[in-house]
Write a structure and sequence with these properties.
The complex is a heterodimer of chains A (326) and B (291). Chain A is an all-alpha fold. Chain A has helices at residues 3-21, 28-53, 61-77, 83-104, 110-130, 132-135, 157-180, 182-192, 194-199, 204-230, 240-253, 258-274, 282-296, 321-325; strands at 148-149, 152-153. The longest helix of chain A has 27 residues, at 204-230. Chain B has helices spanning 2-32, 39-56, 61-87, 92-114, 139-161, 163-173, 175-180, 185-207, 218-232, 237-257, 263-277; strands at residues 129-132, 135-138. Classes of the chains: A mainly alpha (326), B mainly alpha (291). The A-B interface holds A 51, 57, 59, 104-105, 107-112, 114-116, 118-120, 122-123, 126-127, 130, 241, 244, 247-248, 251-252, 255, 280-284, 286-288, 290-291, 294-295, 298, 324 and B 35, 37, 83, 86-87, 89-90, 92-94, 96-98, 100-105, 107-109, 111-112, 219, 223, 226-227, 230, 234, 261-262, 264-265, 268-269, 271-272, 275-276, 279, 287, 290-291.
Chain lengths: 326, 291
C-alpha cells in the first residue's frame, strides 16, 4: 500500500471504529435510529450504482427494498423458512427483478425513466396493499423472526446495528471494487456520453442492466435487513415517497460518491432528531434544507470536503460548453 | 344505460380536472424544461386558497374563485423566483428532487395553516343534480366540464392569438434563439409560471367539491397528471387534455365495470405501456430531443 492510499484509508478506519463503538455511548432509541440509517445507507449505496455511476434516474428503489422485505416476511412466516435462506431468496429475487426492469426500461432516459420507475413503485404499492392473502394487505406482516448466528440471536438493536454496519462496510468495499472494474467504468462512460461509449465498444445495454441488477440486489439486502430489524412490514414502508427520499439522500450526500451516499442516508435519517424542537414544522424545514443544499452544493454535502480550504490539488476547470447547454 | 351516462359525465369531469393539472405541468415543461414534481401540491394549494377565500373569509363564490386564481398566479411567480431561477442550469435530477422538496414544504405549510382535518369547498352550483334520460347528473360535474372547455379555449386563444402566447411558443421551441431575436424571455417565463399555477388553481377549485379539501390530495392528483402527460405526450397541450380525459374515464369506468381495488393500477399500467411502446405519447416530442 503506497502512502497516499494509506492516508486515505485513515479517515475511513477512524469512521468505522467510531461507528462500531457508537452503541456503547447511545440510548437504545438512538441505536435503533442508527440501524435504520445503516439499512437506508445500503439502499442508497445501490442507488448510487444506478444513478451515481450509470446516471439512470430511478424512483423505484423502495419497491425493490419492498420486494426483498416481503420475500423474507412471507417465506419466514408462511413457509417457515430460515431467515438466512429467505434473505438469500429475497436478494436473488430483487436482483433478478431489477435486471428485468432494467432491460425493459432501457430505452428511457431522464424524466421518462423517473416517471416509469415511479409508476412501477406506485403499482407495487397498490398490488401489495390489495393482495391480502399473500401480503396481509395494509395490515402488513408481523412477527418476522430475527437472524441468528449460531446461538447468537440478532434480536437487540445494538446487535443488529453492528451486523448491518458490517454488511454496509462489505457492500461499500464491493461498490468500490465495481467502481474500479471494467463494468463500473463502463457505467460511468455510459453516463458521460452514451453514444461515445457505444462507439468505443462498451456494451451500453449490459452496463445499464448490470447497474440496475446490482442496485436492485443492494436494495434487496436493505429490505431483508429491514424485515428482520423491524420484524414487521407494511406497504407504507415501501411507497414511492420513500423512493423519492432515497434519491434525495443520494443527491444531498453526493451522487457518484460512496461516502456521499452514506453521509446522505445517515444525515437524512437522523435529521428528524436534530429538528425535534421544530415539532410539526419538521418536514417543512427538511424540504427547505434539501432545496438549499441542491442550490448551494450541487455536488452534494461531500463536495464540502473539496472546498478550496481542504483541497490539495486544483481541479481542472470544466471545458465542456456543449454539456452545459443541456 | 342511465348508469353509463352518469359514469361518462363523472369520468369526463374528473378527467377535466386531471387535464387542467396536467396542463399546469406541461405548460411549464415545454417552456422551461422543468419537470415540476410539485404540480400536485399546486392543485392542493389552489383548493385551499379557495377554502381560505370562500369558507374562511366568506367571499362570494365568484370573487373567491378570482382571489384563489390570482393568489395562485402570484404563487407561481414566487415559485419561478425561488425555485426555477436557482435551479435553471442544474441537471434534471436536481430539478426533480428540488421540486419534490418544495412540494413537501407546500404540503406541510398547508398542514400547519389549515390543519389535518378535511374541509368542504362548496360548489358554485350547490349539490343539485339534474335528470337527463333518467340519469342523475351532478350540476357540478357538468359545470366542471363546461368551465374546463372554456379555459382550454381561452388558453388556445392566448397561445395562438396574442404576442405573449407567440413568444411562449417560441421559447418552448428554442429559448436561446428566442432571446437572440429579442423576445422578453424572463418576462415570458414569469407569465408561463403564473399561467401554469392558474391552471392548477382551477383544477383545485373544481376538484374541491368532488372530494374533500385535504392537504394530502396533491399526490394522487399529481400521479394522475403525470400519467395523463405521458399518455398524451410530454410537452403537448392537446396531449395533456386528451391524456387527462382518458385517465379520468379509465378511473371512473374501470372502477365501476372492472375492479375498484385496482382502478389506479389501470391508469399506471397504461402509462407504463405507453412508456415502453410509444414513450413520446400520442402527440409528444421526439424522444431523442430531450431526456
Amino acid at each position: 500500500m503506497n502512502r497516499s492510499r494509506f492516508l486515505s484509508a485513515v479517515p475511513v478506519g477512524v469512521a468505522l471504529a467510531v461507528a462500531l463503538a457508537l452503541p456503547a455511548f447511545c440510548s437504545d432509541y438512538m441505536v435503533r435510529l442508527l440501524s435504520t440509517a445503516a439499512i437506508a445507507s445500503i439502499a442508497v449505496l445501490g442507488l448510487n450504482l444506478v444513478f451515481g455511476y450509470a446516471g439512470l434516474i430511478s424512483l423505484g428503489q423502495a419497491a425493490f427494498i419492498g420486494i426483498g422485505a416481503y420475500t423474507v416476511a412471507v417465506l419466514t412466516t408462511q413457509a417457515g423458512w430460515s431467515p438466512w435462506l429467505a434473505s438469500m431468496a429475497g436478494v436473488a429475487l430483487c436482483g433478478a427483478f431489477a435486471y428485468v426492469v432494467g432491460i425493459v426500461l432501457l430505452r428511457l432516459k431522464g424524466h421518462y425513466l423517473a416517471l416509469a420507475t415511479l409508476g412501477l413503485n406506485v403499482s407495487f404499492g397498490i398490488v401489495v396493499s390489495n393482495w391480502t392473502s399473500l401480503t396481509g394487505g395494509t395490515d402488513g406482516i408481523a412477527s418476522i423472526p430475527s437472524l441468528t448466528l449460531g446461538s447468537f440471536v440478532l434480536d437487540t438493536d445494538a446487535r443488529l446495528y453492528l451486523f448491518a454496519t458490517v454488511v454496509l462496510v462489505a457492500l461499500c468495499a464491493l461498490t468500490q471494487a465495481v467502481r474500479t472494474s471494467h463494468l463500473g467504468r463502463s457505467m460511468i462512460a455510459v453516463n458521460d456520453d452514451e453514444m461515445a461509449a457505444g462507439m468505443s465498444g462498451i456494451a451500453v445495454t449490459r452496463a445499464k442492466a448490470a447497474a440496475f441488477a446490482i442496485g436492485g440486489a443492494f436494495a434487496g439486502v436493505s429490505g431483508c435487513l429491514f424485515a428482520v430489524h423491524n420484524r414487521f412490514v407494511s406497504p407504507d414502508d415501501f411507497s414511492y415517497v420513500q423512493s423519492i427520499l432515497y434519491l434525495s439522500m443520494l443527491v444531498v450526500g453526493g451522487a457518484g460518491s460512496i461516502v456521499g451516499a452514506v453521509i446522505g442516508a445517515v444525515g437524512v435519517t437522523l435529521l428528524p432528531e436534530l429538528l425535534r424542537g421544530a415539532g410539526n414544522a419538521y418536514l417543512l424545514i427538511f424540504g427547505v434544507l434539501v432545496l438549499v443544499v441542491l442550490i448551494v452544493l450541487p455536488d452534494g454535502l461531500v463536495s464540502l470536503a473539496r472546498l478550496p480550504v481542504f483541497r490539495r490539488r486544483q481541479r481542472s476547470p470544466r471545458l465542456d460548453p456543449i454539456a452545459e447547454e443541456k | 344505460m342511465q348508469q353509463l351516462l352518469q359514469l361518462l359525465v363523472n369520468g369526463v369531469a374528473l378527467g377535466s380536472v386531471y387535464a387542467l393539472a396536467a396542463l399546469g405541468f406541461v405548460i411549464v415543461y415545454s417552456a422551461t424544461g422543468v419537470v415540476n414534481f410539485a404540480a400536485g401540491q399546486f392543485v392542493m394549494l389552489g383548493t385551499f386558497f379557495g377554502v381560505a377565500a370562500i369558507v374562511q373569509a366568506h367571499f362570494p363564490i365568484a370573487l373567491g374563485y378570482l382571489a384563489a386564481v390570482i393568489g395562485m398566479a402570484l404563487f407561481g411567480v414566487l415559485f419561478f423566483l425561488g425555485v426555477h431561477l436557482p435551479l435553471r442550469k442544474r441537471p434534471v435530477v436536481s430539478v426533480i428532487i428540488g421540486t419534490v422538496a418544495i412540494g413537501i414544504v407546500m404540503q406541510n405549510a398547508a398542514l400547519l395553516i389549515w390543519g389535518p382535518w378535511p374541509a368542504r369547498l362548496p360548489s358554485p352550483f350547490g349539490d343539485t343534480a339534474i335528470s337527463i334520460a333518467g340519469a342523475a347528473i351532478s350540476m357540478h360535474a357538468l359545470a366542471t366540464i363546461v368551465i374546463t372547455a372554456l379555459l382550454i379555449a381561452a388558453l388556445y386563444a392566448l397561445l395562438y392569438r396574442t404576442g405573449i402566447g407567440r413568444s411562449m411558443r417560441a421559447i418552448a421551441q428554442d429559448s436561446e434563439a428566442a432571446r437572440l431575436i429579442g423576445l422578453p424571455v424572463t418576462l415570458t417565463l414569469v407569465v408561463t409560471w403564473a399561467l401554469a399555477a392558474a391552471c392548477s388553481a382551477f383544477a383545485g377549485l373544481l376538484v374541491g367539491p368532488m372530494w374533500f379539501a385535504d392537504v394530502n390530495m396533491g399526490e394522487p392528483v399529481a400521479l394522475k397528471a403525470f400519467a395523463a402527460t405521458v399518455i398524451g405526450g410530454f410537452g403537448s397541450v392537446q396531449g395533456a387534455i386528451l391524456g387527462g380525459l382518458f385517465v379520468g374515464l379509465v378511473e371512473i369506468l374501470g372502477a365501476s365495470y372492472l375492479t375498484s381495488t385496482y382502478k389506479d393500477l389501470l391508469a399506471f399500467g397504461v402509462m407504463i405501456a405507453f412508456l415502453l411502446v410509444r414513450p413520446q405519447g400520442i402527440f409528444g416530442e421526439r424522444i431523442g430531443d430531450r431526456g
